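Researcher: Hi, I'm a grad student and pretty new to this. My advisor asked me to get structures for two proteins we've been looking at. I'm not sure of the right format, so I'll just paste the first sequence and hope you can take it from there.
Model: That works fine. Here's the first sequence with its structure tokens right after it:
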Amino acid sequence: MTALEAAGERSGEKLREEMLALGRAAREAAATLARASAEQRTDALNRAAAAIRTARGAILEANRRDLQSAHDKQLSPAMTDRLMLDDQRIEAMANGLAEVASLPDPVGTVLAAWTRPNGLKIERVRVPLGVIGIIYESRPNVTADAGGLCIRSGNAAILRGGSESFHSSRAIVAAIETGLERAKLPRAAVQLVPTTDRAAVGHMLAMNDLIDVVVPRGGRSLIERVQTESRLPVIAHLEGVCHVYLDHAADPAKARKIVLNAKMRRTGVCGAAETLLVDRAVAAKLLPPILADLRGAGCEIRGDEAVRALDRDAKAATEQDWHTEYLDAILAVKVVDGLDAAIRHVNHYGSHHTDAIVTEEKAAAEKFLNEIDSAIVLVNASTQFADGGEFGMGAEIGISTGRLPPRGPVGAEQLTSFKYVVRGDGQVRP
């Protein structure tokens, strides 16, 4: 029996007790973490970054086991890329923790203050959410990002990573626990669910007395399961059906550069473009060199009739293609009748994640920004900037695609709530 198989074997009652034990330990750790000073949380993050660098060999060995399992299961190249760690990606994880450590500590920040006519002094102050359950798929770097952001924001974390990255996540959490311990904070502030059993997710979603909020990050089926089953508040990170629209006033050089980067920089990230829309007025001019660039980079093109008339090698797009997050080197391409048609398409087919317009016309840019109902909207920039690190947040747990806050990249500040602190001098209400 492999270690992964052993991790997946739990009786129902044993698993329930294990999950409750995780929750109780997290609840206790959250109280300690919230009382800790900003300097102590910063110390824990810096020590965790150092521990990840020290554990580089162990993390790579754990990741090798996950990659072998991915190979045996014949996961796609895009999924394998999401899973793979190397020296550069491990260093990026450590740097991410160090960057989060350098951010202002949100806990205790006074958001607003005022004095009432009766002399009561009122402050609105940031506080941690408490215990955050985070359920995610494949990418082991999310383990470091989520753990680090929860420490920075004074929250305890219970992490349930994908079975594909089980060994990698376990090695990363061990390094974070080392950082916590060396900073004299409880190791239970960041815990990994010790099983790949899917039933663990069900237990998490029912632990409303021990977990305060759950953050699912993954495909549609995961998000729908969490939203359906959860007894907890949910901060949903839905799939990234991201668009780039090339307006009639697009600069051809910018369009060519942005589209290639938005699709092919990394195809397996949620900010990768999945659909390209082009104004019919400039399609014949703009599309041929752009499609040649994409195909040269190994991208498959699926187009509507207008696109296939310009590119005979493009495959015919189906209705499903406009809904699809490929996370692979595939791009759906459609010619539309101007800006209004592009906006209608994005708002209908998109996942409200990240969408971009390429244009030199200010009025078109402003209309797109105002009317596209997405968490992130860009002008003349790649959708791959949809990332908390690129927004100056150090890292992110995900991109929240709901309309209620937090929306967009969820960093440390977005993992806090607030309370009202009222100071009086003997006032009573008449």
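Researcher: Oh nice, that was easy. Here's the second one.
Model: And its structure:
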Amino acid sequence: MSPTVFRHEQYRFFFFSREEARMHVHIQSGKGEAKFWLEPEVALAQSHGLSPKELRKLRTVVEDKRDEIEKKWRKHFGG
């Protein structure tokens, strides 16, 4: 199961239900995907197919919506 946290433009922000415990969010579009750590700070973990410009934009979105993402993480995973 991979619940959608929210959508922004053509990007889907989501969690994988059975993955490591460190808080993070996955992002996917038709062009590629990325994973951003949320702790201890927002940082790119990995990406495939997305340009540096897109990754900078996505990092900003993650930073701006960090509180919402963390709240939904805790609701989905507990704690």
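Researcher: Is there anything I should tell my advisor about the second?
Model: You could mention this: The longest helix spans residues 52-64.
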